[in-house]
Amino acid sequence: MDIEEVLKWTDEEVLAKTGKHLDSLQKSILEGVWQHQNYEEIAKNNHRSYDHVKKEAWKLWKLLSDVFGEDVKKSNVCSLLEQAELSNISVVDVDSVQIAVSYGNINICDKNTRSHSPPPTPQTKDRSPIINLTEAPEITNFYDRTTELSTLKQWILEANTRLITIYGLSGIGKSAIALKLIEQIQTEFDYIIWRTLNNLPTLSTLQTELKQFFFQPQQTPLPTIIDYFRTSRCLVIIDDVQNIFKSGQIAGQYLTDYEDYGKFFKQIATSFHYSCLILLCWEKPREITALEAENRPVQTLHLQGLREQAEEILREKRLTDEEKWSELIANYQGHPCWLNIIAATINELFNGSVFHFLAQNDVYLGEIEPLLETHLERLSESEKTVSYWLANQAEAVDISQKPANIELSKSEIWQAIQSLGRRSLVERKEMGERSYFQINSILKQYIQSQKISNYPQ
């Protein structure tokens, strides 16, 4: 089998699955690897830099992994393509009929016809998607998230990302952006369903609900969710995922009898299909990091506060002193829920004047405090120790030096900071070649203003 046959067949498969041909550099990378060239040789032959070729090769292996449902990389691409072509190409051509061998089955079909997996488009373009959003929250206001929406759409519609986690503080806008996303891409799917874990359904219960939704009377029932994900293009949003994680433990540890959710999420990420599962959560699930490290079709969006878009909130509340709005937004990190609460306070106590409110020189928390407490209640003892320590530092800290007054090992401190980061409670700052860490400024204000017995002094 020569490289021209392999390139032609691979290009056809990529076109059938994505609607796009391989570009010239992608073909050159495949040809070079087939001829046992390294990336430096391929770069030289194509008059490109080594870094550029290496980056494009990584994208190519990810593309081929999605197309063939295998973990494709430089070390195995030749053997995988050869095996895939032999198992799929037509082997006999008699007049206008050919016998095709595909995964052990013999099919008789028209000449030049090949059976492919479902394309990344709904089965019937003129059919409206079947949608169930009965468990989705009602969103009365949506504040501009153009950049984040563009990223999500690119991941789903172009990169065929199978598992997406949107995580961030409560009230930051995770549900709102997911609902706006559905509004913009619903015609690309056959089925769309929103489910919440607020009432702690077991995985078995959730899967039964999903299969009942996907099953239509004119169809044959399928045994697993993955089967439905493969035969139709489905978009599933699971909200309040943090509810199946333990409180008082490092972030992302499952409750007893809920560990199978982690296996389910991994199955969604590692099985070949054109559907997508979106998780909405206060904290990033632990297994997501491992899946991302394996270059799986998995992405994470850490949703943070609004910037100038937050001015819309203050405008809706009819606050005055517009020249001070940016300072107010910065003080409350552009968090839409917090800003709505503070804007109501400014109207009640300062007649809508942002200037007079800021003149008090305090970051007032008021009704934000109960929201912060719900996050703090979930922390492990080591996280509470580290968060109190960080709250009493004037600046971001270098964690390479273990603080003398903390009875935790360096490893425990690092684990706690990593976990706090996955909860959106600790932020990382890059200074030169080093990373420094600081606690969320609003949480810092709260800890400093409270005498909390379970925070070590």
UniProtKB/TrEMBL annotation:
It comes from the Bacteria. InterPro entries: HTH_VMAP-M9, NB-ARC, P-loop_NTPase. This is NB-ARC domain-containing protein. Residues 147-242 form the NB-ARC domain. Pfam families: HTH_VMAP-M9, NB-ARC. Residues 1-83 form the vWA-MoxR associated protein N-terminal HTH domain.
